[in-house]
Amino acid sequence: MELGVPESNQPVTHEKGNEAMAQSGSGGVATDEGGGQRVTVFFDGGCPMCRREIAHYRRLQGAERVDWRDIHADPDALSAAGISWQQAMERLHVRDGAGVLRTGAHAFVTLWCELPGYRWLARMVSAIPGFVWAMDRIYTVFARWRWRRRCRDGVCGAP
């Protein structure tokens, strides 16, 4: 595995499953110092648990290389990336440096590759055949629970 490439090298789709819709550089794409695309994390800033986790990542070395997009504070970032509000609320979305959109566990692995303190974890989970796939199945169960809970709180509708 090449560092920075999640186990599944397939882009994300928003159909059932987690493969195949490539999102290339669209409007609102942040670039790094070399002119390449920065990894972009689209997160639910209205979710206390999500905010805590993202705050943890943002304190780490390397976090300054990531474009952090709170979808509550900046909902227009979603349409620029081709993500609907519901899709963004249902799963974590990360656009990698090549402009490929990833969700769920694959999104976490993409993020971890950007953070020096987590690269070892990205390498480890990606080196074990089927591990990221299994992580994604567990994440899907958790994400459905989180989505239902957020809907009970009345946050399902677009801002």
Secondary-structure topology with pairs:
Layout: E1 40-43, H1 48-58, E2 67-70, H2 76-81, H3 85-90, E3 93-95, E4 101-103, H4 104-114, H5 119-127, H6 131-152
Parallel strand pairs: 1-2
Antiparallel strand pairs: 1-3, 3-4
Mean pLDDT: 80
Q: Report Rg.
A: 15 Å
> Order of helices and strands, N to C?
EHEHHEEHHH
State the helicity in percent bands: 40-55%
The helix-and-strand class reads alpha+beta
The description of the largest β-sheet is: 4 strands, mixed
Neighbour order of strands in the largest sheet: 2-1-3-4
Condensed summary:
The protein has helices spanning 48-58, 76-81, 85-90, 104-114, 119-127, 131-152; strands at residues 40-43, 67-70, 93-95, 101-103. With 159 residues, the chain is α+β, with helices and mostly antiparallel strands.
Protein described:
The protein has six helices and four strands, in the order βαβααββααα. It has 159 residues and is α+β, with helices and mostly antiparallel strands. The chain has a domain at 40-144. A four-stranded mixed beta sheet has the order 2-1-3-4. Helix 4 crosses helix 6 (131-152). The longest helix has 22 residues, at 131-152. It starts with 39 loop residues before the first strand and ends in a 7-residue tail after the last helix.
Structure characteristics:
159 residues; alpha+beta; 4 strands; 41% helix; disordered N terminus
